[in-house]
Every structure is written in C-alpha cells, then in structure tokens.
Write a structure and sequence with these properties.
The chain is an alpha+beta fold and 442 residues long. The chain folds into 2 domains: 22-217, no CATH class; 322-440, Heat Shock Protein 90 (2-Layer Sandwich). Helices cover 69% and strands 7% of the residues. The protein has 15 helices and 5 strands. It has helices at residues 4-12, 22-56, 63-89, 107-115, 118-153, 155-158, 171-174, 181-197, 199-262, 264-284, 286-314, 317-322, 324-334, 352-373, 409-418, and strands at residues 339-343, 378-384, 388-395, 422-426, 433-440. Strands 1-2-3-5-4 form a 5-stranded mixed β-sheet, with helices on both faces. Strand 2 (378-384) and strand 3 (388-395) form a beta hairpin. Helix 2 crosses helix 5. The mean pLDDT is 78.
Length: 442
C-alpha cells in the first residue's frame, strides 16, 4: 500500500538535475577555456596536416587513406569536444550517427565511407576553421581576466616587494596620479575589483561563444534528427490516443447499451405491461388495479435508482459540482468492499478530462474489486506531481487481473491512454492487486 507522501515523491522523481551554481559553473567554464587551447591546437595541427597531405596525394591512391584517417581523427576530436560541451551549455550534446561501411565492401569503398559522410566534413571544418581561433580568444580573455583580477585584489600584499625606480612607472603615474604607494594600491585594487566583478559574465560569455559555435557543427544534425524523431513519436502517440479514445468510447457505449437493456429497459417494459393491466382492471377489479399501480410505482423507483447509478458511472454531478475528492469519497462510501481513501490536500480542481478519467479509474477498478477479486479491503490513493496526477487502487484479493483484450481492464487502459496517461497493473495470481494510473495534469 502507498501513502500520499510516497506517491507524490515518486511523481516528482522525474525532474531534471539542478543547474550548477555560478561558482561551480565558473570553474567549468575556466577549465573549458584553458584546456581547450592545447586540445584545439593539436587538433588543428593534425587535421590541417592530414588534409593537406591527403589532398596533395590524391593523384595517387595513397591520398584516399590519408584523408580517411584525417576524417576519423576529426571524429575523435569531435567526440572529446562533445563531452566538454555538455557541462558548459548544460544541455545534452548528442553524438550523430556516422555512415558505416556495409559487410563485404572492398577497402576502397570502406575508405570512401567517411569521405561521403556529411557529419565527418562538419567535424573537420569545426576542428580546422571554427574551434581553433575561438579557443585562442577564449584562452586569452580568460587568462587576462583571472590574472588582472587576482593581481589587483592582492596588490596590497606584494606592492612593497615590487621595485619602483625612476624609470619604472606604475599605472598611477601613467594616468597622471602621484606615484605613491597609496595611489598605486588604490588604483590597482580598483582595477582588480572591476575585473573580479566582471569575471563570471566575461568567462561565461567567451566559453559559450566557443561552445555554441562548435556545437552547431558537431551536434546540429543529431539534434535535428532527434527533433524529427520526437515529432514522429508524438504523432504516433496522438494517433494511438485517438484510437484509444475511439475504442474507449465504443466500449463505454456498448456497456451502457447493455446495462440499459438489462436493467431500466426491462423494467420499463414491465412497467408498461403493468399499467396496461391496471387500466384493464380499473372497471372490473379496482382493488387489483390499485395493487398493480402500487407495484408499478415500485418498478418506477427501482428504474430511477438504476438510471442514477448509470449516470454516476458516466458523469456524477458531485464530480462537476464539488470536485474529485468529494466524488471519490462518495464512491468509497457506496463500495461494498471497505475502502481506505487517501487524497492529497493540495489536489485542487483539475481539468474536466483529468477529473473524469481519475474518477473512472477508481469507479471501474472498485467495481471489479467488488465483483471479481474476493477482496476484504481496498485502498485508493491520489496524489499530484508537477505535471501528473497519480491514482493507485489496491486490494488484498486473489489477483489475476490483466489489461489484455477480452479482460475488463482493457477498456480502462484505453480510457487512460486517450487522456494521454498510462496504466500499469500488478496482479500476481493469489494477490494482492495494484492498479496504478498516471494522467497529465499540467
């Protein structure tokens, strides 16, 4: 059994990781700028040398493997850069799918595979023309800002050790101030404070300048493919939801038709027959007619009770008027199996489709518990996460529930899926049974 607090914790577990603080981010950006220049220099030297050598040797077959090796080297440098980009831009840096040679290809075709891959050329361009100059700028700016900020803020501690001869003028003298110790310390400290205050945005700016320029070449195609795949998945999900909605609607209509045929319709037919018999008895046997009419009134009350029960299963007025907690409380009170209801205090009013879906899950499940599970107790737990509503219905019955077609829960699963949610059933033979539904509520 699950408490509301435990379920709410589960619903919030999918939140993304927190962004690093500015001190930690400053360290990441500084390391990215300082370590990037040596790596970019090596990459530039290797790629330029390999590309020029391969291009110059294209008149012979030797140029092809040299160019192919250069492409693979560019791919390796690109993979290293992608690992660093993730922490700088705080976003995933997906690795693109590279072309692969097919089994049975000869060495020339395998060699040409990397040369036919657009992403390999983008990796080469990034290493040769984009990342190297930006790495120089990022390195120089970062070192300058750190050095000036550190030197200015600590000037008061080592000013006494710096010699100042007649030809060794300080920044104060250059700016027209008297070259005294106080003026030197004051001016140098002020410059250090300015550079220290601007250190975070400046280092962040040059790191992002280099990172985003390279990321567009190294991850752009992969992100575009992921975006297209996401659109296709959402389209498929919408189509699946539409099919589920149609299936759930058809199932609900069939059940409603069956319930009306088996209950109110039969009673109305009998009521019509009783009224016809009472009319025939009015002149010959008034007492019998009165008894028949009394029986017809009883049939009318039972028919109204059945119609009210059917309407509560479709859209109970209490759900519309007072919300989900009150509707679930009324549902639990009517259940023949004792129900322990736990609803989060901060639930509030939700969208009509969310409330009706949650109510339908609880109503249908408790009906199945009463009819098929042989349970002696059940629990209904409802909690709200940042963007989802969770409903858990559990019982201590004999288990064996399933959402497979032909079982009673198949229509319930379609109803939940039509609302964009998910339904999971845990019901081993022998019990207990737990039905967990999650519905988007953002």
């Amino acid at each position: 059994m699950h408490s509301v607090g435990a379920m709410a914790t589960t619903l919030t577990d999918t939140a993304g990781p927190a962004r690093p603080g500015f001190i930690r981010q400053l360290g990441i950006d500084t390391w990215y700028a300082l370590s990037g220049l040596p790596v970019a220099t090596v990459a530039f030297a290797v790629l330029v040398t390999g590309f020029c050598a391969g291009a110059g040797l294209l008149v012979t077959l030797i140029g092809l493997p040299v160019l192919a090796a250069t492409m693979y080297a560019a791919r390796g440098f690109a993979d290293v850069h992608r690992l660093a980009l993730r922490r700088v831009v705080n976003r995933p840096s997906p690795r693109p799918r590279y072309l692969r040679s097919r089994p049975g290809d000869g060495w020339i075709r395998r060699t040409l595979t990397s040369l036919r891959d657009p992403q390999s050329w983008l990796d080469l361009i990034a290493g040769m023309f984009v990342d190297f100059p930006l790495a120089i700028v990022a390195f120089v700016v970062t070192v300058t800002w750190w050095a000036v900020a550190f030197a200015g803020l600590t000037d008061v501690f080592y000013e006494w050790a710096v010699p100042h001869g007649p030809d060794n003028h300080s920044l104060a003298w250059v700016l027209g101030f008297h070259d005294t110790l106080t003026n030197r310390v004051t001016l140098n400290t002020a410059v250090g404070v300015v550079f220290a205050l601007t250190l975070v945005p400046v280092v962040r700016g040059v790191a992002l300048m280099r990172a985003w320029a390279s990321r567009g070449l190294l991850c752009g195609i992969a992100e575009m493919r992921q975006h297209i795949a996401g659109l296709e998945e959402r389209t498929a999900n919408l189509a699946d939801r539409n099919r589920a909605a149609a299936s759930a609607e058809a199932d609900a209509l069939r059940r409603l038709e069956r319930d009306i045929h088996d209950g109110p319709q039969q009673r109305l037919v009998r009521l019509a027959m009783d009224l016809g018999r009472a009319r025939a008895q009015m002149e010959t046997d008034p007492e019998a007619a009165r008894a028949t009419i009394d029986e017809a009134l009883g049939q009318t009350r039972e028919t109204l009770d059945e119609l009210r029960a059917l309407s509560r299963g479709i859209a109970p007025p209490i759900l519309t008027d007072r919300g989900l907690p009150s509707a679930l409380a009324a549902l639990a009170a009517r259940s023949p199996v004792p129900v322990d209801l736990a609803v989060a205090d901060d639930l509030g009013r939700l969208a009509p489709i969310v409330e009706s879906t949650a109510y339908f899950v609880a109503a249908e499940t408790l009906t199945n518990v009463a009819k098929h599970s042989a349970a002696t107790a059940a629990t209904v737990t409802v909690a709200r996460g940042p963007d989802r509503l969770g409903i858990i219905v559990a019982d201590n019955g004999m288990g064996g529930a399933s959402v497979a077609k032909g079982h009673g829960l198949a229509g319930l699963a379609d109803r939940v899926r039509a609302a964009g949610g998910t339904l999971a059933v845990f019901s081993p033979v022998g019990g207990p049974t737990e039905i967990r539904a999650e519905v988007p509520c953002a």
